[in-house]
Amino acid sequence: MSFFARLLGTAPDPVEAVRPLWHRVVAISRQPDHYARCGVADTIDGRFDMIVHILSLTMLRMEASPDLGLQTARLTELFVEDMDGQLRENGIGDVVVGKHIGRLMSALGGRMAALRKVMAEKDAAALAEVLERNIHWNEAAEPAALAARLLDLSADLAGRSDAEVLAGDFGEPR
Prior knowledge:
Layout: H1 3-8, H2 19-29, H3 32-36, H4 44-63, H5 69-89, H6 94-121, H7 124-134, H8 143-158, H9 162-166
Helix pairs in contact: 2-4, 4-6, 4-8, 5-6, 6-7, 7-8
Pfam families: Ubiq_cyt_C_chap
Family: Belongs to the UPF0174 family.
Protein name: Ubiquinol-cytochrome C chaperone family protein
């Protein structure tokens, strides 16, 4: 989008094309079973962990498509926008929001790197180990149960067309 188109508001914001996808990532991360059955802590940290893991799986699927590269960057923009808003809502001031966003982006990058390897191998035990280290759990932690759910989601994403992924049409039975 050109500078003048943005300035004058004559063209639609291209980020809006991936907003349904972002909303779907958040909706999947909020599914009660992650917290009730798998033992993810129902806290700010636990919810962030789930968003980052679902987002990472989605972005890994998008990386597999040469046509979705730019959309991955736009999805990341929505992640940053949402996290910025959440930080401000929780009382983090302007002076340090950038530093917090940097840490959140680092967490996203680290989780993607960890998932990239184990998801390629489709190794449930290795995925459970990664999750055990990278998720805030409650006392009823079930990393293997969450690993099975994430492997199913990854398989679902892999079986969807690019258009279905962009529309957020995944994570539900067909």
